[in-house]
TrEMBL record:
<protein>
    <recommendedName>
        <fullName>Transferring glycosyl group transferase</fullName>
    </recommendedName>
</protein>
<dbReference type="InterPro" id="IPR038941">
    <property type="entry name" value="At4g14100-like"/>
</dbReference>
<keyword id="KW-0732">Signal</keyword>
<feature type="signal peptide">
    <location>
        <begin position="1"/>
        <end position="25"/>
    </location>
</feature>
Length: 228
């Protein structure tokens, strides 16, 4: 008899344990609105970007454990531009030979985007974009983000400036070798250095910074920090 009672208690506890995650998700999310998937800690993505008709192919190397993010931007029939961002707020924006050797160093108050940077985004519904059925969210009015309903991979995002990125590849776990994360020597010493101490609006107004997805991403990180 005693052992039968124990068995009943045990199965009740097991049932509760099983239900707990479900109850948790119902409590935090009463309508079961979909939430954006966190970014993998490391990935490589090829993006096709349309910035008011100017096209770019960008290699995005997101590397959270190492506190770094890289946008390697090929402008259509134009310059190859490197936008290397560190979590301490420093960005190196440079070109290499055969293009002119230029480098700009920027300092931001924010680091790179956190893997959960989409947390708290507003769900806008589902939409078919680039031939994929997507869940759509808006984050602090700076970005609209489209994620494949089935695979949960990002498909597209649109910055507040209208700049639109289409995700062509999404290689989870891909890491760019360390040697490639080295800004050229002319970034150190006499390079032009700017402080981006200001929040949001000066970045918004600056046509130079508006042109780079890296700058826009930093702006979003900035805005997200301000909101959180
Ligand atoms: C790029 O975007 C502009 C609108 O800003 C649009 O007119 C044009 O067709 C787009 N180009 C491509 C290749 O998608
Ligand atoms: C941030 O980190 C990078 C890479 O280690 C370094 O080159 C840069 O000088 C650092 N910036 C600051 C402000 O410490
Ligand atoms: C590269 O430098 C040369 C000489 O200073 C200049 O004429 C040219 O416009 C520059 N090219 C770019 C793409 O900035």
């Amino acid at each position: 008899m005693a052992s039968a009672t124990k068995l009943i208690y045990l199965s009740m506890i097991l049932l509760l344990l099983q239900l707990t995650p479900l109850m948790e998700s119902i409590r935090t999310n009463p309508t079961l609105t979909p939430t954006p998937t966190e970014w993998p800690l490391q990935f490589h993505s090829v993006l096709f970007i349309n910035n008011s008709g100017s096209l770019q192919k960008t290699d995005l190397w997101y590397d959270w454990p190492n506190g770094r993010n890289f946008n390697i931007i090929q402008n259509q029939l134009g310059e190859l531009k490197y936008d290397l961002e560190w979590n301490n707020g420093t960005s190196f924006i440079y070109t290499l030979e055969p293009f002119n050797k230029t480098c700009k160093v920027l300092h931001f108050d924010v680091g790179i985007l956190r893997p959960n940077w989409l947390q708290g985004a507003t769900f806008l519904g589902q939409e078919r974009v680039d031939n994929f059925l997507c869940n759509v969210w808006e984050k602090v009015e700076f970005i609209v983000y489209y994620e494949d309903v089935i695979t949960h991979r990002p498909v597209k995002w649109i910055f507040y400036t209208g700049m639109t990125a289409h995700v062509m590849t999404f290689e989870v776990g891909a890491v760019l070798e360390d040697a490639k994360w080295q800004a050229p020597v002319y970034c150190f010493g006499e390079a032009e250095t700017e402080n981006q101490r200001s929040k949001i609006s000066p970045v918004l107004e600056s046509p130079v910074h508006g042109g780079s997805p890296g700058m826009l991403i930093r702006t979003i990180a900035d805005a997200a920090d301000a909101v959180l």
